[in-house]
Amino acid sequence: MHPYRLLIVAFLVASCGDPSSWVLTGGTMGTRYSVTIAQPLEEPLRDQLQHDVEARLADVETAMSTYLVDSEISRFNLSKSTGWFAVSAGTCEAVETAQGVSRLSGGAFDVTVGPLVNLWGFGPATVESKPPPQSAIDAALERVDYRLLQTDCDRPALRKERADVYVDLSAYAKGLGVDEVAELLEARGIQNYLVEIGGELRLHGVDAGGDRWAIAIETPSGDRRTAGRIVSLSDKAMATSGDYRNFFEYEGQRYSHTIDPRTGRPTHHGLASVTVIADDAALADALATGLLVLGPEEGFALALEEGIPAYFQVRQGEGFAERETPAFRAHIGL
Asked: At what angle are helices 298-306 and 281-294 packed, to 10 degrees?
């Protein structure tokens, strides 16, 4: 997916030098993945897991990357048909789940936002770092609306009401990759693990010291990586979306990569980052993006109303104000 997707959430692994721990790393989706297993493994199983993890992540990319011209999503985007387009069950289910977040957020999260992301220079193609003309924004907005996209996962297939609708799962697929790897580990009988891809993570059981996993949420300082709030989690997923690393400046104004699908422009409010806890990383990923787009007031109100475990960092002077929902406090044991 997007090669500049932020590594916003850092994770801390207790006793990482313990011989009962094993860490597997590699590249995927334009970023890095890390799998920490906090239990002894036989050497043959380690070697097989390396292969299986990378194969599973390659399957996700082959299905959903807009950076691969022959992926399922790229072929759907290139198709000029408005009839049903056959896709894998996994791709259909991913789009269907993402559509649910779109409805929940009133379109603040929208997998059809790709034309706007590309127009502003944050997509696969390299463009000049300056704001596009309003006429181009208006033209792209005509193609952006999650309601122009339909799913039928009994087939499984996707359908678009306009031939030029473009699906971009960048704010969902890394979380899905995390979930795929987590399911793979559990199928192998591994119960104590932490999986992370580009800042989206899922964890289960305990760390090598026998404690809940300690996770540091980065302070959105922009010029350096600083660990901020540290939370304790087990058997959950967590994802953070922020606006403070991937951006460009033009004539003294800063333009974030976080595009509001409703206005066609980068978000412009005080909310710097949102962290969401959920049962799976893909859902946490999508919810964090939607809440970030909604902003500090509307996003927090939705999180409260829906009982979403969410942590907000809002710019305030030279620092940041923190807000968290009761559900977030409950999940981290407070």
From this structure: 140
Q: Cα separation of 163 and 159, whole Å?
A: 9
CA angle in degrees (0–180, nearest 5) for 267-64-178: 80
* 11: pLDDT strictly greater than 60: no
Distances (CA, A) of 226 to 15, 121, 231, 239: 21, 27, 15, 17
For 312-333, the pLDDT digits (tens) are 999 888 888 999 999 999 888 6
| CA gap 195, 13 in Å, rounded | 11
Strand order across the beta sheet in which 9-12 lies: 9-12, 213-219, 226-233
Dihedral Cα 15, 18, 24, 26, nearest 10 deg? 60
Q: For residue 47, what pLDDT band results from cuts at 50, 70 and 90?
A: confident
Report which residue type is found at 256: S
Closest CA to 333 of 231, 236, 216: 231
Neighbours of 196 (CB within 10 A): 27
How sure is the predictor about 122, in pLDDT bands with cuts at 50, 70 and 90?
confident
pLDDT band at 254 (very low <50, low <70, confident <90, very high): confident
Least confident segment among 220-224, 261-265, 281-285, 319-323: 220-224
CA 227 to chain CA mean position, Å: 20
Residue 44's closest CA among 156, 188, 202, 231? 188
d(CA 135, CA 250): 19
Neighbour tally for 27: CB within 10 Å: 10
Which domains can be identified in the chain, with CATH numbers? 67-170 (1.10.3980.10)
Q: What's the rounded Cα separation, in Å, for the pair 40 and 22? A: 8
3 state DSSP class of 182: helix
Decide: helix, strand or coil at residue 298: helix
What is the C-alpha R_g of the chain?
19
Scanning the structure block, which residue is given the tokens 């031939």? Answer: 163
